[in-house]
Amino acid sequence: MGTSKKTLVSQSSHSQQSWPWWPLLPLYPYGRKRTIFRELIPNKVWCYEQLQGLYYVAVPVRLTVVKVEGGLMIVNPLPPTIELLSSLNQLEKIHGPVLTIVLPTASGLEHKVSLPSLARAFPQASIWVCPGQWSFPVGLPLSWLGIPGKRTKFLLEDGVPHGETCQWLSLGPIDIGLGRFQEVACFHQPSGSLLVTDALIGIESTPPLLFDLDPTPLLFHARDRGDEPLEDSTEARRKGWLRLVLFASYLRPNQLEIPPLSEVITKSFKPGLRSSRAHFGIFPFSWKEGWENSCKELVGDRKALIQIAPVIERLVFPRAQATFVDWLDQISNLPRLRWLISAHFSAPIEFNKNQARRFKDKTYKRSWASNEGNFKFLGGLDKRLLMLGVVPDDPLRVFKD
Ligand SMILES: [Fe+2]
User: Fold this and answer.
1) DSSP label at 398?
2) Is residue 58 helix, strand or coil?
């Protein structure tokens, strides 16, 4: 494999994991951000991972650190807890200071919300952001969002950081109505790693290591009814993980039914489950027989299955397939491409030129923007947004001039 097994699982106290700015984007696990550290490519690439999600639909979010000339570059911020910063400081002692912090996405809120506090933690670092940063519901200037204007530059518009070791490949911009979708992938030549934010991911059936710190979200979703206790086993963790993947991928998977409120209430508040950890037994989900089968398109059995995240494919790219294929084409021409490292799910994943080319061909030929099966909910959502005029029918229109 060529990757190191060096992993530091958090032993820190609650206070070292707290992050006071969590109400800006109130996602589970709120103010407590446990972090794990992993060395992905020996002496070249490392990452930190924290959980983030809604109602126990939590998936890991990743900050990646790469070795550059004279120090380190961070790609995709995470909330800088004391725990995370002290580990980063250890890396700095060995490999040099954090020179650069990059926010390579225009849209991914979960990546941008912690940029101001991470930037403050490294006052000497230069900041690079993807062009077209937007804030919802109103567009605010960068400085209003707490991003230091004086040391912030826009990727590609103002040049690129560490051009001697990194190649930058833009996906988009694509007009998505409320703002724009764009992310700039970074190819880190010394390690052969392609750093991507949300556009490409790889998922495997084993739950991420991060859940070893607290498997509650997995055990919560492994159940079939609200009156079942949360019981821990390898099988329960795997089952819960597959269901989380389905939720995160399709928002409302086709194999999921929402039972009537009366049924949910009858099974709630049972003895042993009257705690916030079990959401007081409130479990408004019911999975149809054979739900596992729909995971086959998402989850690789022995290794991660590389894919375009279904939410992104169906809501961001339905009318921009060609743009996506162009970007994949650039990727498949990268010399010495070896690994894919995304900001979510598995990393690093083997991804060489041939694999990238096969993936591009498959993407090009595949029927795109389906409304069937698991895509029914996302397809319906897209149709409604189109009808309301929230999303444009030609997402490249405003950028063509
Ligand atoms: Fe993301």
Assistant:
1) G
2) strand
Sign of torsion over alpha carbons 278, 282, 288, 293:
negative
β-strand partners of 127: 101, 152
Centre of ligand 1 from the C-alpha of residue 276, in Å: 27
CATH number of 7-204+302-362: 3.60.15.10
Interval 111-166: pLDDT, tens: 988 999 999 999 999 999 998 876 555 556 677 667 787 899 999 999 999 999 99
User: Strand pairing of 339-341 and 193-195?
Assistant: parallel
Ligand 1 centre to CA of 274 (Å) is: 33
Q: Cα of 199 to ligand 1 centre, how many Å?
A: 9
Distance in Å, CA 133 to ligand 1 centroid: 15
Q: Domain-by-domain residue ranges, the chain? A: 7-204+302-362, 226-295
Cα separation, 174 vs 394, in Å, equals 9
pLDDT tens figures, 68-122:
999 999 999 999 999 999 999 999 999 999 999 999 998 777 898 899 999 999 9
**Do residues 351 and 194 touch, judged by C-beta distance below 8 A?**
yes
- Ligand 1 centroid vs 197 CA: distance in angstroms? 6
CA of 260 to the centre of ligand 1 (A): 32
pTM for this prediction:
0.86
Q: How far away, in angstroms, is 242 Cα from ligand 1 center?
A: 19
Question: What backbone torsions phi and psi does residue 395 show, to the nearest 5 degrees?
Answer: -70, -10
